[in-house]
Amino acid sequence: MSSQFVVRSLLENDLYKFTMWQALLHQHPGATAEYAFVCRNHPVFPLAELKVELEAELDHLCDMLFTQQELDFLSGLRYIKSDFVDFLNVFRFQRRFIRVGIEGDTLTIETKGPLVHVMGFEIFVLYIVNELYFRRLSAGRETEILEEGRRRLADKIALMRSAPVAVDATGDFAFSDFGLRRRYSAAWHDEVVATLQQALPEAFRGTSNVYQAMRFGLMPIGTMAHEYLQAHQAFGTRLRDFQKAALEGWVHEFRGDLGIALTDVVGMDAFLADFDLYFAKLFDGLRHDSGDPYLWGEKAIAHYRGLRINPLTKRLVFSDGLTVERALALHEYFAGRIQVAFGIGTHLTNDMGLTPLNIVMKLVNCNDQPVAKLSDSPGKTLCSDETFLAYLRQVFHHQPPQEV
């Protein structure tokens, strides 16, 4: 086992963690929350075998502080406010808020405590587990695996350069790296980002990884995740109105910045029912993260047209399990009808010839109430309370997606 700790910096987190963190600190500082770790596929060996190493990694994480250089970088982002940076200056993860256990061969990880203290654990937990898993899986074959990863990355770059809708001087096809949480390793992630930055400077727009954005001089990319909207199910608003409350809170916090809204917490149809002319004008566009992306995009375009908004003034961001091939196909399909961009994750940072882990760590409880996401994709719904899940479906007239 390598003695090198996985986490290099507290800044090595997805941008949307910081943006949601700021909004929730300002608007709901007393909220409590609980998150749960889930592995959706079958690893080569039980993740429970990583418990001892994971505990040591979490001890290390909870000893870390932000550096002045990191805080200065955050301060340079116009939507990050000075009081939030002051909070981060004294912030330290608390070990007592995160527990690791074993149930049979299953690794369990739970965080429970004040929302603004536990929400930041998620991405760190996911990429720690990933790197520990792949260190062990790759032992003795590191060179071979890296060579395969480089070959596959070169093929992706060649495809983007040669595609009919390919990259040109105007940056016609635009994508970003969204691969922090499920990456093969930190070193490989650095290599991928540096290679893309050099090979595709017009198309490669940035990364969700704020630490790498600072290191490589890239744009940090991201707005909100499911947990932000889910938390509003427990903030005292009538359940039917939680999406409107969440979107209103976002507008109040960021005043026009970070204008891409996430649509699939209770399904696209229910989202569009709440996304009226007011929000459609205030937000720059929408992000897709479950369900058929073509059908989703058609619904978005029709919605904008129904509101007499020119779709060409808005942007759709696709981010659901994308490959380069699928992103190029979506770009060609929607070209000239609406602006599009792509966040590509695991396909960039963990395409090494090994089966990636499908792991998540989701908000399951807020203010001692269950919360849930009603996904438009089979297998993505996660909730600890079936009664609440049924009630949520009833309120939003949401039909469970059919397994294929």
UniProtKB/TrEMBL annotation:
**Known Gene3D superfamilies for this protein?**
nicotinate phosphoribosyltransferase
Q: What is the name of the protein in this document?
A: Nicotinate phosphoribosyltransferase
Q: Name one Pfam family in it.
A: NAPRTase
Q: What class of enzyme is it?
A: ligase
Entries under InterPro entries matching the protein = N/Namide_PRibTrfase, NAPRTase_N, Nic_PRibTrfase, Nic_PRibTrfase-Fam, Nicotinate_pribotase-like_C
Enzyme Commission number, as recorded: 6.3.4.21
Q: Biological process (GO) annotations?
A: NAD+ biosynthetic process via the salvage pathway
Which residues get modified to Phosphohistidine?
226
| UniProt entry keywords in alphabetical sequence | Glycosyltransferase, Ligase, Phosphoprotein, Pyridine nucleotide biosynthesis, Transferase
Summarize the protein's role: Catalyzes the synthesis of beta-nicotinate D-ribonucleotide from nicotinate and 5-phospho-D-ribose 1-phosphate at the expense of ATP.
* GO CC annotation terms, alphabetical: cytosol
Q: What superkingdom heads the lineage?
A: Bacteria
Say which family it is in.
Belongs to the NAPRTase family.
Modification after translation is described as: Transiently phosphorylated on a His residue during the reaction cycle. Phosphorylation strongly increases the affinity for substrates and increases the rate of nicotinate D-ribonucleotide production. Dephosphorylation regenerates the low-affinity form of the enzyme, leading to product release.
Residues of the Nicotinate phosphoribosyltransferase N-terminal domain: 11-130
Q: What catalytic activity is recorded?
A: 5-phospho-alpha-D-ribose 1-diphosphate + nicotinate + ATP + H2O = nicotinate beta-D-ribonucleotide + ADP + phosphate + diphosphate
Q: Which Gene Ontology terms cover its molecular function?
A: glycosyltransferase activity; nicotinate phosphoribosyltransferase activity
